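ok trying this again, last paste got cut off
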Amino acid sequence: MKSTIAVLTIVGLVASSHVVSAQTNTAETAAPATTADVAPAAPASTPDTAPAAVAVAPAAPADAAPAAPATSASAVIPLIAMDDVQLTDAIKNLARQAGLNYMLDPRMSLGQTGPNGEKGSQPTVSIRWENITAEQALQALLDNYGLQMIIDPRTHIARITVKDPAAPEPIVSRIIQLQYSDPNNMVAAVQAAFTDKRSRVMADVRTSQILVAATEKEQESIAALVVQLDKATRQVLIETRLVEISSNPSTKKGMDWTGTLAAQNLSFGNGNVSGTTTYNHSGAPVSTTVTEPGGRVVTTTTPGGTTKSTVLDSLIGNGGLSLNTAKGLMPSTFFLNADGVRNVLSFLNSSFDAQVISTPRIVTLDNQTATISVTRGFPIFATTAGTQGSPGGSSVTYSNIGTILQVTPRISANDRIWLKVVPEVSSFFGTVTKTVAGTVNQADVFDSRKIETQVLIPNAHTLVMGGMVKSSPSASFTKVPLLGDIPFLGHAFKSESKQLDKDNLLIFITPTIVQEDDFHPTDTDFLKSQPFKGKQYMNPDSIWDGARPKDWSDDPKAFGENDQVNTK
């Protein structure tokens, strides 16, 4: 019986080798066969079963060479081919190639002995796969026959059993490492790709990773989605040139009689009198003795005497009228005063031109706003009135006055650059005073010029923006009525003053896409350098330079090595 089984086995192997050689002649000439050996020996009890055949090389007899070692689960096999191989044999060979330990569920009826001693039938497998891993091939084979593989986390042994059609797909957790994208942004994209309500995704910002708990099919689609989205964000170099041109020409010509005729002050009168009166009381009584004829002596006593003195000050020359009841007009002379004649002769042209050029350069990420600011802080004072419960106070805030440019680039698929440009120019105009509820309030007024536009330009081309012109012409005229209208002679009685304040801002923007070869490493040994040690001109721990009392118990010497006086 044993000899019969051996003969049948050898015949089966020879037949399978002929079949394999016939199938793989073209494959062997195209590429060397390097895949797995999946042809087991035929079972002794079923000599009529055809042995497995792999399209890699003719199968050698079972005792001719040892079995090939298992390959890595992630190794790609160029070609896997099987013809009429039993399903259990195919599973066994693919599991060996994938390096998996497995066992079949006893409830499965795949060639196993039944209650009556009869073996159940099992399907045969005929496949041909190229450039696939053994694990992928095994999973595809199990899915095709309604089987599933469950790995025990404790023993790491896989159990192959029948898949329940009504059971939902199991949830698999995977951690995906992001390279460039923000985890929070990636979470929103992954959530939109879920089809199962049980699927979840969480972000770990510290490690730039996302944890995805989803079905196997969703995991594959999410992995492909992350590969497409997690790419390095391109950068744009923004080169700007801000040219601000200011021109202030002015002219003054003619005779200006404003000082004479605009406010001529006249006064007439004898002056304004003001004075003080002083009273002096002596206080002591005064006795007067008189001897009358006949020898009679009469003594009269009167109270203390009182004196009065009046000093008058007269201001002459500013008009006014002084009159008193004693002497009438005092002084009696009247005076006429005037400011006199004043004239300003002007015959001059002046001009002030200025040009300010700023050339800032900045690199920003695609679709991120870059701000270029050339400003000056202008103080604004705010005063708070005090109340019964809280005292008043004042605070100072600063407003940026100048030129602020905001640029947002976005790179298109054909390397054109979409730009959103928002330039703003502000300046101080003046101070406005208003009275509100009896309180005088002052507020600063600012001029602002702003443009917001969106353009699409090619890479490394320059965009020119202008039109932010501020023109303030002004003119003033003075003329003496009638005299200023006399031909030729009238020029001596009139004048004119003209001024033009003109500011123009030109903005040149050149966006350039930064390529990978634009970055170059810089050779530096800064991290290896030692910190600079300056020269010590004093030793605060010595008794000469230090202010702390000397501890003689630790160092009985008055001067040690560290107690030397530095005289350099």
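PB: full thing came through this time. The chain has seven helices and 26 strands.
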